[in-house]
Amino acid sequence: MMIFDRTMQLVHRTLDLRQARQRVIASNIANEETPGYRATDFNFRDSLQAAQRGQGPVTLAVTQGKHFGPQGDGFQRVVGTLSDVPAGDLPLDANSVNMELEMAKMSDNAMQYNGAAAIMAIRLRQLMGAVRDAR
Fold first, then answer.
1. From CA 23, how far away is CA 31, in angstroms rounded?
2. How far apart are CA 90 and CA 83, in angstroms?
3. Region label for 21, one of left (φ > 0), alpha (ψ between -120 and 50) or beta (otherwise)
């Protein structure tokens, strides 16, 4: 019996990756006044969607029944990539942080994080209900 199913594993990994993206966005905002600072972004959506479809970053083949196969789902192996945000015309201080863009990204990321946290809370309440009913 599996207590934490694929959905909970996916939501758990999503929360971790959203938290990492929030740190990158916060770093960009904190360095808005730093001359020469280049804004970065943390991308993981494509890798996570590929893992959800069963196309994890590493695929191991099990050729005999006695071999250990890959443990867990591919969600836990998904890591994001840090990339530079393309900058158009840079100001005199060569700082590429666009405050409006960063605030929009922060708002979207926070909304996505809260949605995933709500799903996790619902699943944990269901689990608690099952434990209470089993008494």
1. 12
2. 18
3. alpha
